[in-house]
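Reviewers of the previous submission asked for a worked example of the structure-prediction workflow described in the proposal, so we include one complete record here. The input consisted solely of the amino acid sequence. No template or homolog information was supplied to the procedure at any stage.
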Amino acid sequence: MKLIVETAGAMFELGHRLGSALQPGDLVLLTGELGAGKTTFTQGVADGLGIQRSVTSPTFVTVKPYLLAGGGELYHVDLYRVDDPDYLYEQGILEELERGAMVVVEWAERSRLLDEYERLLVRIQLEGEGRRLEVEATPGWQERLRWLL
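From that input alone, the workflow returned the following structure tokens.
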């Protein structure tokens, strides 16, 4: 599925719609060059989950957990500065995912372990002033892509 997103506000809104539809144990992978809108998308996801805290890129910390008001957690991971493809496993993020945490990973192409999980992959590419998103879903996500419409 391909989408064109023309503004940062539209990117945030798309993330918000996804966040509203997330379920425990969901994994969302984001790829795209610097400035493509991965963090803006993630901010929308957090907003859709009801997270009131400011969501910023965890580039230097790499992992930021956010508690949800109704219980559960969202882990925001940024692999930009990570060279170890096993990093998510070593940091226990995949264990948290299996326990029901929701995980959004920026620069997901830097981890090889993610191919083993049900996931939604969003590739974000700069296109003029806007962004082109290519959305790829594993079978468990196929039916749930209604949030995009």
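Strands lie at 2-5, 27-31, 63-67, 73-78, 102-106, 120-127, 130-137. We consider this example representative of the routine output the project will generate in years two and three.
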